[in-house]
Specification:
With about 375 residues, this protein is an alpha+beta fold. It has four domains: about 100 residues, Herpes Virus-1, CATH 3.30.40; about 55 residues, no CATH class; about 30 residues; about 90 residues, Herpes Virus-1, CATH 3.30.40. The protein contains ten helices and seven strands.
Length: about 375
């Protein structure tokens, strides 16, 4: 009896350990149970679920409002396996320790802090060797971080739940978004750096267009480009309309003709002796005693009196009377006409009133 009981205990222990190994390695294609019974149970469950889901639907003609999906926070962290796995036969018999309980929020926070200190979210994924960017990532209870898709592919390939780095079995996983946050900060920093660089380069180009460089060769090239730009702008703004040019010339000629005609009418009249006497009387009324050009006394003025001319040995200079009733030395007026306008100019203007004049020598 003792031998049979020992053999039975050994058989139960062996089966329990084998079942635990199968569950631990997650070998789904192997099982202690009969595969035929498993298939029959699956068919029964499927038929029961179909019967349970079959409900009569009555069309009332009323449109039903379908509520949209709940928009959850995309940055929310959550645990993928919140409930512990069921106990195996070996664990129920006390042959092996039970699986660890799910980590609390404080324990997950400590695991996350340890992962941040290690810089796992900054470094690439250890499986695919690529940046996390905006892809979903998972944090294991051993503080290692991977892409969620990479970890699922690794588990499917190895057919067991073991950490790819530390080989810890039956780890717990939590979805985090640290890599996505760091990637957004990195992208924002890069965009800001590019924008600042663009602004600085634009400012520097505008500055180079205004301030000439200190180097002689570059300075010469700078001014050559400036002169070329100015010449190009002048050529672009130049109007080559011949009709408008000729019309402007005609207008200018008409204005000049009108001015010359007015001068002819004003200065071309012949002044009679009576008019000269009136002009001379008007000049005497003004009491002009000196030449306004040389600022020396005149030899004669309109009332017939002799002005002070210095010593008697000096010959008095001729005095000229203008049609505007101003008196000058004849030599001074001739010198002024020759200096200012020349002998070929038909009209001269008075140095005082700027009007066209005719002149007459006043006899002593």
């Amino acid at each position: 009896m003792d031998r049979s009981s020992n053999k039975g205990n050994l058989a139960v222990t062996a089966v329990a350990l084998q079942d635990h190994l199968l569950h631990d390695l997650q070998l789904g294609h192997l099982s202690v149970a009969d595969p035929c019974k498993i298939k029959a149970r699956k068919k029964e469950r499927k038929s029961k679920s179909l019967k349970r889901d079959a409900t009569a639907i009555i069309d009332t003609g009323l449109r039903k409002t379908t509520e949209g999906p709940n928009m959850e926070d995309t940055e929310k962290e959550y645990v993928l396996d919140p409930t512990p796995p069921p106990l195996t036969l070996a664990q129920k018999l006390g042959l092996l320790p039970p699986p660890p309980l799910p980590l609390s929020s404080d324990e997950w926070e400590r695991v996350k802090q340890r992962s941040l200190l290690q810089g796992d979210s900054i470094q690439p994924c250890p499986i695919c060797k690529e940046e996390f960017e905006l892809h979903p990532q998972v944090l294991l209870s051993c503080s290692h971080v991977f892409h969620r898709a990479c970890l699922q592919a690794f588990e499917k390939f190895t057919n067991k739940k073991t950490c790819p780095l530390c080989r810890k079995n039956q780890y717990q996983t939590r979805v985090i978004h640290d890599g996505a946050r760091l990637f957004r900060v990195k992208c924002a920093t890069r965009i800001q750096a590019y924008w600042r660089g663009y602004i600085v380069r634009k400012w520097y180009r505008n500055l180079r267009k205004i301030i000439p460089p200190s180097d002689a060769k570059l300075r010469r090239k700078f001014f050559e480009e400036k002169f070329t730009e100015i010449s190009h702008r002048i050529l672009c703004s130049y109007n080559t309309n011949i009709d408008e040019l000729f019309s402007e010339i005609d207008v200018c000629l008409a204005v000049n003709r009108s001015i010359l005609q007015q001068l002819d009418e004003r200065c071309g009249q012949i002044i009679t002796e009576e008019d000269w006497e009136k002009i001379q009387a008007q000049a005497a009324h003004h009491e002009i005693y000196e030449c306004s050009i040389c600022l020396t006394p005149l030899s004669f003025h309109g009332d017939g009196r002799q002005a002070a001319i210095g010593t008697s040995s000096q010959r008095p200079r001729e005095t000229v009377l203008l049609s505007c009733a101003h008196l000058f030395h004849n030599a001074c007026l001739l010198a002024l006409e020759e200096f200012s306008l020349g002998d070929n100019v038909p009209f001269h203007v008075c140095p005082l009133c700027r009007s066209c004049y005719q002149k007459k020598i006043v006899e002593c």
